[in-house]
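Regression check, S-adenosylmethionine case 276:
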Amino acid sequence: MNAEAEIGRHYASGRLLEAILAALAASGKQGAKLTPEELAPLDEFHLGGLEATQAIAEGLELHPGLRLLDVGCGIGGPARYFAAAHGCQVHGLDLTEEFVSVARRLTEMTGLTERVEFHQASALKPPFFAASFDRAVMIHVGMNVSDKAGVFRAVRALLKPQGRFAIFDLVRTGNGALRYPAPWAGGEATSFVAAADAYREALAAAGFRLEQETDRTASGVAFLRRAMAARAAAAAPPPLGLHLLMGKRTPAMLQNVLTMLEEGALSAIEFVALAA
Ligand SMILES: C[S@@+](CC[C@H](N)C(=O)[O-])C[C@H]1O[C@@H](n2cnc3c(N)ncnc32)[C@H](O)[C@@H]1O
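Current build output:
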C-alpha cells in the first residue's frame, strides 16, 4: 500500500458520521442548527483547537469575499470557522474520503454550504485552476507529507501573486525520540515530521517568501494539559470530542504528543509566507 492510501486508512473508521450523530443526540444538539464553536471540540483536529485556528486567521489577514484554500481540511472545523467568522469562500481539500463526506454533512448542519465546499484529493494534485485563491492554509498536515516542496509548489500555483499561505505543524527539534501512536500516524511509515529548516527551504524553493514564524509550543502544551486534566477529572469524555476521530488510542496519542513537546522532540510552529 502506498503512503497516501495508508494515511487514509489511519484516519478513516467507516463509522464516523454515525458516532457524531449519536454524540450530538447525547449532548441534546440533534436536529438543531449548529455553530462552528459548538462543533469545535470535535472538528478542530490540531493542537490548540479553535484558539489556534483563530490565531492562524489573524496571520492570514482574512476579510469577507476572499477565496481561501484549506489543504488537508479534515472534517472541516477550520474551514467553517474561516467562513462563518471572516466571511471567506472556503474550499477544503482532503485525502480521506470519509472526512470529506462528514465535512459536507456538518457544513449542512451549520448552514454554511454557500460559503464552504469540500473536495476529495491529494494535496499534491489539487483539482483547482491556477491563481484562483487569495489565501491558503494547511494545519497539521505536513506531518503526513513526505514531499513538502511538492505540496508547497502546488499551493503556490493556486495562489494569486502576494497571496498568503499559513502553515501550522509540529516540527522536529532536538534529539528526543518520536513516540507512536501519534494523532497523525500509528508509526514511522506514514510519519514525515521534519525540522523547521526543511519547511523554510521547501517554501523558498516553491516561490514563497517567509513573512512570519511563530512558536506556539508553550500555548499548545498548556492547551493539551488542560484538556487532559479535564478528561482525567471526568467519569467519561464529553460526547463531542476528538476521541470520535482518534478512537480507542486517543489517551495514548495525546500523552505521546505532550511528552514529545515537553521533551523538546517536537515544537508547534506557525509559518506565514507570501507568494513571491
Ligand atoms: C490531523 S488532521 C488535520 C485536519 C484539519 N486540518 C484540522 O486542523 O482540523 C490531518 C489531515 O490531513 C489529511 N491529509 C494527510 N495527507 C494529505 C495529503 N497528501 N493530501 C490531502 N490531505 C492529506 C488527512 O486526511 C487528515 O484529514
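Comparison notes: The two ends are 37 Å apart (CA to CA). The pocket of S-adenosylmethionine is lined by residues 4, 7, 11, 44-46, 72-74, 77-78, 94-96, 99, 122-123, 139-141, 144-145, 183-184 (CB under 6 Å). No diff flagged against the previous build.
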